[in-house]
Amino acid sequence: MVARRIGVGEHFLVRRLVLFLVALCYLAAFASLRDQWRGLFGRNGVTPVDALLAQVRKNGGLSSLVDRIWTLPTLLWLGDTPSVDAMGEAMCSAGAVLSVTAASLALFTRGGGSSIVWMSLWGMYLSLFHVGQVFLSFQWDILLLEVGFVCIWLSPKLRPTSRDPPHPAGLWLLRFVCFKLMLMSGAVKIQSECPTWLGLTALDYHFDTQPLPTPLAWWASTHVPREVKRFGVAATLAIEGPLTLLLVAPFRRARTVGAYSQLLLQAMIAATGNYTFFNLLTVALACSALDDASLGRLFSWLRTSRNSNGGDAHSNADEPDTPKTPVTINHDDLPANPSARRKLIDLLSPNSRKTVDGAAQDLKEGKLLTREQISTLERAQNTPLPDFDPDSVDPKSTGIKTPRRRLFDSKSPSARRWSRRYAEERESLKDYSYAFGLVGGWLFVAFAAANAAMMFKVDGAKVTLKVGVPETNAWLAFIVPCVVRYAWMFILPASCVAHCYDRVRASSSRTVGCVRIAGACCTLVAAVAMLGVVLKPLHHVVPKSTGVSVLGEFGLPAGGVEAALPSFGTRWDDAIDAYSTKFRLSSGYGLFRRMTGVGDDGSVMRPEIILEGSDDGGNWTAIEFKHKPSDDVKVAPTWVAPHQPRLDWQMWFAALGAYNHNTWLINLVYRLLRGEPEVWGLVDDGSRRSDRYPGGWGASGADAGRDDGSAWAPTMIRGRRYAYRFVLADSDERTYWKKTFMDEYLPALSLDNQSLMNYVRSQTDWNKDDAGTPADLGAALDFLRGLNNLRAYFLAGTACAALLLGLDTVAARLALETYGAEKVKRD
After folding, report:
1. What is the largest CA-CA distance in the chain?
2. With bands split at pLDDT 50, 70 and 90, how would you rate the model's confidence at 689?
3. Rg (Cα) of the chain, in Å, rounded?
4. Residue 485 burial by CB count (10 A; 0-12/13-18/19+): exposed, middle or buried?
5. Burial group, residue 510, by CB count within 10 angstroms (0-12, 13-18, 19+)
6. Residue 697's pLDDT is what?
7. CA of residue 752 relative to chain centroid, distance
8. Whether residue 362 has pLDDT greater than 70
9. Rounded distance, CA 33 to CA 128, Å?
10. Which of 221, 528, 674, 758 counts the most CB atoms within 10 A of its CB?
11. Under a CB-based contact definition with an 8 Å cutoff, are residues 585 and 177 in contact?
12. 634, 736 Cβ separation under 8 angstroms
């Protein structure tokens, strides 16, 4: 008999961990947006949302609320134009509170949450995403929507304290999302033919040129040897290439290796770059490939809590559990309750004062509770007991609950013998399945590792990439369609059928069992459709035809990913595509397709825009931002993740192109010149400088002598582009950057510039005086707007979690009184 660890094949802890991590991502996203909403999306912000809604309503001729929501799905349509700003802030605060609620439920309840909470989180973030324009167009925003929607499947439907195991469809969907994300990110690096990725020199530039580096990025750039960096690039291409197959392998050991490799990669990325909540979200996806046993001792306290609360138990805490082996009972299999433990040991001990016949007599007298205990004594003593009808026991006279009944149970001796023989065969097959999984898992790991090793050539201490675009396309054209077919033809139906089988056997009646079978069929169809939505973007990196004969040799039809996807007919496929696109249920990804900041001579040249202000046109002072590289090269990089300073991020993208391709930048300069305090709040207040801004730029209020609500601002603003790179200190005084002037990026603009004013008027009517006054939103929304810090979010979120648990307890007691203990426990 092979000893197996507790938690193998179970996913109670995994569900709670994944939901907790995704809830933290939602919290970071909503809380970060709340602090920046007025400056980015407010009426006086860089990209006003009310102007966008007015333009959509005007251009589309949309009069009804339903038409407007269908055209641009956002809950901000529910407010009048003057109150859009307030509604946006209230929605960000409400999302942060619900994120804390979801995280609390994941930590402290057996089920890990409720689908209602997760549906609300997804709906609110979708509403903000559709109006966020350029500042909410990052890949992790789309990924959060995709993962958040799948988490609705993963979480319990209503009750946070549900004892039902997580549905395998939700877990497999998350695994395939992770597979798609990492495989596409790795494929585009080679398909782009970027010389830094093909030459394994990308890390020579990455640490310097990434959007918001950390202090460790400076150390890695200046101190890590080039050979180590080349090995890091090779490891990245391997982990984002062939090793992604491990995430969706049918063997748990292979999935564990794949998950740990992804966790290692994300830890390295998070240490050297501020990528908001993206790394945390990817960690959550990688954890979905684990099971409870793979989480290790780190979460042993959660496993203990779940077992003591009955998260995966069959019976009450004061009832002895069924041993896992037919002959012997291990110490870990004994009940935690002391009295139940002594009773079971007393009954099974060879030197016990009670014999098997005595135990059978006790059963007839109603002293033992469940049919599982009877089967335990039969197998342990290898002696059939006399037939005993548990229904003959009167619970009122004995104080014992009615035993649990299972669907298709029978009292006939032949049926009981068949059931006993089936249980014994199932126990014996566990050893074979364990051995098959062990060998198959390591063989699958060896297969993926061999594919990764074939990508490189090692010559002494030097590693070079051996494959190019043709070889990569051929590998993708063969492997990816096979994975897609394996996903919806085999692994998803098999896991759903196994889950349905366990649920049906635990049903209290044939009616309940039939209802569960019908529900499982509907769930399987929906899961296959959702899997097709998740995997369809893979066709962007997989060519339909490569001319490679291996496809014909293995008898696989050509056509790429689209031919391998499940189809429900042209009409239904078109409807699924339309809905998935509108509600952002899936997307393609490709992180760092090409390495930026590579000079013509191969040197590091990170382009950076420095905005400068002046009151006289002669003396110019740099306008600092909070987290992007400063004009002062002695200012160190900062730690900011999981918060995302979205304006700082967009300044990095703007430096890669021209200002006329980034219209939001012109709007930013216009708002700064007008002295809008909300926009000045997005830039640094001068604390990163040795002295404050001249003229008190950015200061507002009566203390600053500005009674009109505006802030002090320069007369004109210009933009200059510099090339930055990390350097070692040349003296005792530490210097982090070296900058070189490149060109004039933005000409000097002022409010007297007629071209600037004509452009602003052509975009929208941003007349502050005609904006109107915010409408009364009611006490609830005003209360939510007042929640604008982490402490308030945690207090309100934990209160909501406590309220949901209270409602769950009340509903459970009502069901207990209405239907009885055993029916509630079974169904």
Report:
1. 105
2. low
3. 31
4. middle
5. exposed
6. 79
7. 48
8. no
9. 9
10. 221
11. no
12. yes
